[in-house]
């Protein structure tokens, strides 16, 4: 009211002599109380109906006066836009969940941490890496500082609010405390996959399918001219084969050169035995020997 307390008291006492107060005291005092309260709360009073339309806890539109048709139009318009917004949010959430699922299944054992195994950026992540390394666990990692959407989304996706988070075969194992408990009970070695020796891993890879092609890229997208040529030749034979993208694994890329004593890519293997690179495959095609070799007949 902008009045000091004494002045306010005098003003209120003066209202008791108001003719309307004498004629209809209850009505007048209720109305007076309403206006005084509105003033104290700094609420604006209107002489006609005012409709505010909210969306996401925000006022997005206003209608002055009792105009039913106009009010209906506004409600329908904002309800429609809210539905579109909700649909977009649902789609974005679904896309994020698909991405998170791919990430936690990117390796048999995935660690979501702050930083990297070589440079952890928090004490908990550092301890987690030390435990996994101590037990010879083979794992890949994802730095949550590199992607805020993943960092926040994974908390909800897995219902686990803190980091680091360890996943095995796409399933959440837990954080640092859980891993410490598994280590203390002797269960960690059975839960997490052991690091495989490179030679054993290479043997496993070249025998993963009867015909294995180690290349740059994959069947759908060759990432160098030599790889593109060799898949075109093999595709024309009609023989089924699998590929391994050496660009995604530097250890395999370098190790296989030494393992097979073959310094370049692509490399073609049949039943675990090296056939050769692009030039050899071209020669076999010209001589008519390629298909029998791919089928394991020679």
List keywords for this structure.
Monothiol_GRX-rel, alpha+beta, 4 domains, 4-stranded mixed beta sheet, about 300 residues, transmembrane helix, transmembrane, Glutaredoxin 3, 10 strands, Glutaredoxin, membrane
Please sum up the structure shown:
The protein has 298 residues and is α+β, with helices and mostly antiparallel strands. It is 52% helix and 16% strand.
Q: How would you describe this structure to a colleague?
A:
This is Glutaredoxin 3. The chain crosses the membrane at residues 26-46. One of its GO terms (biological process) is intracellular iron ion homeostasis. The chain is α+β, with helices and mostly antiparallel strands. The protein folds into 4 domains: 5-45, no CATH class; 54-101; 105-191, Glutaredoxin; 198-294, Glutaredoxin. Helix content is 52%, strand content 16%. The protein is built from 13 helices and 10 strands. It has helices at 5-15, 19-23, 25-40, 68-104, 123-134, 148-158, 176-185, 188-191, 198-206, 225-237, 250-260, 278-287, 290-294; strands at 50-55, 58-64, 109-113, 140-143, 165-168, 171-174, 211-215, 242-245, 267-270, 273-276. Strands 4-3-5-6 form a 4-stranded mixed β-sheet. α5 (123-134) runs parallel beside α7 (176-185). It is flat, with a radius of gyration of 36 Å. The model has no long low-confidence stretch (mean pLDDT 82).
């Amino acid at each position: 009211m902008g009045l000091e307390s004494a002045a306010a008291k005098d003003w209120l006492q003066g209202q008791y002599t108001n003719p309307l107060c004498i004629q209809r005291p209850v009505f007048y005092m209720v109305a007076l109380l309403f206006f005084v309260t509105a003033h104290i709360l700094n609420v604006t009073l209107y002489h006609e109906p005012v409709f505010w339309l909210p969306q996401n806890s925000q006022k997005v539109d206003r209608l002055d006066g009792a105009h039913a048709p106009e009010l209906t139009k506004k409600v329908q318009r904002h309800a429609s836009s809210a539905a579109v917004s909700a649909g977009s949010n649902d789609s974005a959430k679904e896309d994020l969940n698909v991405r998170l699922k791919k990430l936690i299944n990117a390796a048999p054992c995935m660690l979501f941490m702050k930083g990297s195994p070589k440079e952890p950026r928090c004490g908990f992540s550092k301890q987690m890496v030390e435990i996994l390394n101590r037990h010879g666990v083979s794992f890949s990692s994802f730095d949550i500082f590199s992607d805020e959407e993943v960092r926040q989304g994974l908390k909800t996706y897995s219902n686990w609010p803190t980091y680091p988070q360890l996943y095995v075969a796409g399933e959440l194992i837990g954080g640092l405390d859980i891993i410490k408990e598994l280590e203390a009970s002797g269960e960690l070695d059975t839960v997490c996959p052991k690091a495989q020796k490179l030679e054993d891993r290479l043997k496993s890879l070249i025998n993963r399918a009867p015909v294995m092609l180690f290349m740059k890229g994959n069947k759908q997208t060759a990432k160098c001219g030599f790889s593109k040529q060799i898949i075109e030749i093999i595709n024309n034979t009609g023989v089924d084969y699998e590929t391994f993208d050496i660009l995604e694994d530097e250890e395999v890329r370098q190790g296989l050169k030494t393992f097979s004593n073959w310094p370049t890519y692509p490399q073609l293997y049949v039943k675990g035995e090296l056939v050769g690179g692009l030039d050899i495959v071209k020669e076999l095609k010209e001589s008519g020997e390629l298909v029998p070799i791919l089928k394991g007949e020679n």
